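Cont'd.
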Amino acid sequence: MSQDLATTSYALLGLLAFEGDRAGLTGYELKQRADSTLRFYWVAPAMSQVYTELGRLARLGFITGDDRRSARRTTRRYRITDSGRRALRRWLATGQPEFPVLKHPIALRLMMGHLADDDAMRAMLEEYERDLLVRRAELQEVRTSLGDVAAYRYPAMVADWGLHYYDTEQQMVRELMARLA
Amino acid sequence: MSQDLATTSYALLGLLAFEGDRAGLTGYELKQRADSTLRFYWVAPAMSQVYTELGRLARLGFITGDDRRSARRTTRRYRITDSGRRALRRWLATGQPEFPVLKHPIALRLMMGHLADDDAMRAMLEEYERDLLVRRAELQEVRTSLGDVAAYRYPAMVADWGLHYYDTEQQMVRELMARLA
DNA sequence: TGTAGCATGTAAGCCGTTACATGATTGA
DNA sequence: TCAATCATGTAACGGCTTACATGCTACA
């Protein structure tokens, strides 16, 4: 069963692939991983979608979920299967990736600056710069936690990529504010 | 009628706002504008969605469409109304913008590099660099066409922002390729 | 003892895409 | 005359979000 999945499915499957032979992740935990890493260069899917995707991936045999009963509660931990790992490899090898899509509300609004005033636009950019620094700090934490071990070589590269992006973005925001002053 | 519209609606309304008192745009033309400018920092909506949004905006009174009959064919040109301009100003002034979302399939795949090999990852980045240059050239054309006139001051800033982004992105891609070599 | 966080789902609905349908106009 | 481009829509459907629903567990 090959099946064409949406990219988000592969993204989540990819997160599970990093767990190796560990006990696996609950849907809740997977959502946390997505929030802390995936969100920087893909999306942070809603909780409900995480469960939907887990159901789909399990039906395809790409992951297995085993129930852990503890007195009164049952939680389910998912692990990637060999078939899932193959599917992920196939996806990586075939089909070339689309060009990135940037949804940039600040740039969009700046484009319409003639309907507002420079002060408002500058204030918007200032606010954006603050948010940018918060985001950067969060990503820096991720980067630090990855360290320099071989196992996390690729995620580390992606994190560095993101940090570089935030740095140059901040620099450009400053230039734009100067242009508005 | 205030109504909360999706950002894409405002984006298209914003494009119409640039037409000033000209004859207006057909849905087809609006789609072309979106493809050549909006796509760099928002999205390029499908043709069908452009018509859907046009219908919505017209129902709200934010735009008016007048029919041009020419022998056998009727085309409709839309112009922004005063009410539409007010709605756009209101949207710009209130409600602060969300943080940008980047959907970056190349970064996503690089994250899973341990499932492929460095050669494949490097090839992917090379391909991406080529695409990046094509995009950059397209945006440069837009930038050039905007010139340095006051009327296009803001779109010009946004275009410069985009060019800066593509430049730093290319630089980073080269660094990553070196790291993989 | 109460509240924040852990944990799992279903339902309704919006945004946006692809596929489908149709036809006019322009220029090689 | 034929193909590309202009031009306008509708239908089906997928992806994803928000809202709804439910209950456990740890800890202050």
